[in-house]
Amino acid sequence: ASSVSSAAHSSTSKAHSSTSTATATSSGAATSSSVSQVVVTTVTATPSPSAAALLPSQAVLPATQAWCPSKIFCAGPLLQTINIANIFVDPKTVVDKPTAKTSKVVLADFAALPGNTSLTEQDVVNFVDADFSGEGQELMAVTLPGFQQTPPFLANVTDPLLKAFAQTVHGFWSQLVRGTNSSTLCDGVKCESSLIPLNHTFVVPGGRFREQYYWDSFWIVEGLLESQLFSIANDTLQNFMDEIEHFGFIPNGGRIYYLNRSQPPLFIQMLARYVAASNDTSILTRALPLAERELLWWQTNRTVNVVSPFTNKTHAMAQYSVTNTAPRPESYLTDYVTVHDPTQPILNDTQGAALYAELASGAETGWDYSSRWLTATTGTTTGTGLRQLNVKGTVPVDLNSILYKNRLLMAQLYGTSNKTAAARHTTAAAAIKEGVLDLFWNATKLAFYDFNLGSNARNDVFSTATFYPFWSGIFPPEVLANATNAFGAFSALNMVLNRYNGTMPVTFIETGLQWDAPNAWPPHQYIALQALRALPANVTSGALPTPAAGANTFSLIPAGQLGVDESALPVQNLGPTTNASTSGPTADISGRGAGAGVVNGGNATTGGWANVLGAQLANRYVAGVLCSWHATGGQIPGLLPRLSDAELNVTQSTTNTGNMFEKFSISDIDSAGRGGEYTVQAGFGWTNGVLLWVASNYGGQLVAPVCPDLLALTASPSSSSSAGPSATAPGSSSSPSTTAKTGAAVGLTTSSLRVLGALVACAVAYVAL
Ligand SMILES: OC[C@H]1O[C@H](O[C@H]2O[C@H](CO)[C@@H](O)[C@H](O)[C@H]2O)[C@H](O)[C@@H](O)[C@@H]1O
Predict the structure, then answer these.
(1) Which residue minimizes the CA distance to atom 20 of ligand 1?
(2) ipTM score here?
(3) What does each C-alpha distance from 726 to 713, 733, 734 come to in angstroms?
(4) Are 718 and 740 within 8 A, CB to CB?
(5) Each residue of 294-347: pLDDT tens digit?
(6) Burial class for 164, CB neighbours closer than 10 Å (0-12, 13-18, 19+)
(7) Cα(first)–Cα(last) distance of the chain, in Å?
(8) Which residues contact ligand 1 via a Cβ below 6 A?
(9) pLDDT digits (tens, 9 = 90+) for 3-36
(10) Are 74 and 68 in contact (CB under 8 A)?
(11) pLDDT at 740 over 50
(12) Which residue's CA lies nearest to atom 18 of ligand 1?
């Protein structure tokens, strides 16, 4: 890097709300040419009312984790004490702060704090302020090399507003591209940091996710390739290759506290997409041996033999399974509370350790957390739900579909250059495919479900994981047999498009977990779209089925597929005091017929049912991203005026310039998803990547959406969803919602953690007595 100037806003704690700006100069470790000014952190300090209060007593420390030896950033007395003090809104903040002093001095300062019985929150605040610096300070923004204002894919987008929006999103890469700042990087002596320094430029998801993430990068790379930012895509791959070389696998994210786990293994898919888009086959010399190594890691560390109760055949299948007996450092308080929850039965050390392993395994899935991983789906508050995690007892359909596709891509990438290796991967793929069809496919319900090792049967939670085998090219014989069955496998998506304003939710179960209803995530819209595109033409060329008179699109779904009754489906609001009906013909808020009248579904599309659903979902995705961005302050000069302050006040966005959210909602298109253990993040890598991919691939079919009227939203008391055209006027102007919107934060945050923290304090005190 030639010139460097990085400004990092470092908010320290809730009790001390000062903000500092550090300017650093460096030669930089990033490969790109120059560095621009950027704010790299997002945490807002909030004053605590209880700074003078004594800290609650603590549970016994968990075992030290061999994989995470830092006495500062890994499980141990220092991290537990800071978390018990609960001085940050987000427990990830402190583990992303490099120390301001040597490790030795930090540990000595910690040891010098008053003993547990007289330690106050203010003592901990003072300690953190004195001994740690700003989170994310080891990273710097870098200027994108080869950035084109008008990349070729924009020519595919015909609607002028959407063309301009896609171009705006293309410009957002500059806000998310990072390099390691060698001048602020800790050497482990002068200071210590949790960052895994990377040699090459990378793109972060955004918000609290300040580092490179594994599976997020797949959708980021899809977008980078549309933007023709080939060198950044290459850099991303080089970083992953460095990690495989160094660690033997790709960690969840670029911090040492992620080193006990991976994430959905999409490196080979990124590699194949990069080679196809750039024609740069030279990368394969380094990449193929390392891809082999990654596959071997999954085979050695994450594979179980499953004897099928259906065919009695034995299949070697992959699962997410992490060895871990302590809270995740980045979610320390959350995990600690889950294990020590006083409203739940007391767990002994072995049970607590097993639950910590489940929590880490859940994070490895990328779907942290979901009813997919629970042994039961009742009693579903976050606390009680997570007690029921059964990730290690689950064989997931999406993971095995990804590995199947990885094997096929490896065979393709070797091609004729190494026929033996190609044949080996083709054989491995065939074995996985056999296992996927045997263990996960339910030929009656026409859907794929995870396999439960405990019950030796398929689970019945229907989720977007059902689309992964289709995306990877695995088609059950029933689907290949006829169009009715093929549609049946996608009939839930058809129902969503007709019955709701938003996109495909993860599941139809509302648990408060972020990978459940009502949340709809960008990666899954992409997978569903790709699954539709992958279906063979002979089963997709017919018209979109329509419900019988008096029925709605729920009736087109095979019996039992969703695992929930129609009356238990999420509700769609139609106005301040009106919900769509939960049964009968008016439960569909759209018009009927092949593509006609689906809210924000674009113009009627010609072609078979899969094309129609694809175009509708693509339009719906763009509607959700654009409307929520506009509702939080986004504007496009000359095409999309900024909303008035009165309107932006509804989303608390009067000083904002538009959020690209990480997750969305089945029913709201003007706000983000909700729930989970951290507040909704904006940025956002995969949202942008999928938006650009959709713009490129569906550009001619995209029509500017009708966004909800925000002022109408303030008209009424609380409700969970918003904003949709009324049932009588599909596709027309918006109708009101009842939700107080927020452009920034939703979910289990400080106050709920404080309450839980207090409960835990009581419980621990009680146990101590
Ligand atoms: O800090 C809690 C958890 O946060 C991450 O998970 C979520 O964000 C990731 C980045 O966008 C995404 O890859 C993942 O699917 C999300 O659920 C992190 O990956 C977890 O390991 C972490 O514990």
Answers:
(1) 363
(2) 0.96
(3) 14, 9, 7
(4) yes
(5) 999 999 999 999 999 999 999 999 999 999 999 999 999 999 999 999 999 999
(6) middle
(7) 59
(8) 92, 205, 209, 213, 215-216, 252-253, 328, 330-331, 363, 366, 368, 677-678
(9) 212 222 233 344 333 322 222 222 223 222 223 3
(10) yes
(11) no
(12) 363
3-state helix, strand, coil in the chain (%, to 5): 40, 10, 50
For strand 447-448 and strand 451-452, is the pairing parallel, antiparallel, or unpaired?
unpaired
- Token duo for residue 738: 């009842």
Which residue lies with its CA nearest to atom 15 of ligand 1?
A: 366
Ligand 1 centre distance from Cα of residue 368 (Å): 7
Ligand 1, atom 12, residue with closest C-alpha: 366
Q: Tokens 């549609």 appear where?
A: 487
For atom 16 of ligand 1, the residue with the nearest CA is 366
Rounded to whole angstroms, how far apart are CA atoms 13 and 47?
A: 8
> Cβ contacts of residue 10 below 8 Å, gap of 6+?
19, 20, 21, 22, 41, 97, 133, 134, 135, 137
Question: What does the CA dihedral 399, 402, 406, 412 come to, rounded to 10 degrees?
Answer: 160
User: How far does residue 110's CA lie from ligand 1's centre (Å)?
Assistant: 29
The closest-lying atom of ligand 1 relative to the alpha carbon of residue 253 is: 19
CA-521 nearest atom, ligand 1: 15
Q: How many Å apart are CA 179 and CA 36, to the nearest integer?
A: 11
pLDDT in tens, 341-381: 999 999 999 999 999 999 999 999 999 999 999 986 543 44
Q: Which ligand 1 atom sits nearest the alpha carbon of residue 365? A: 15
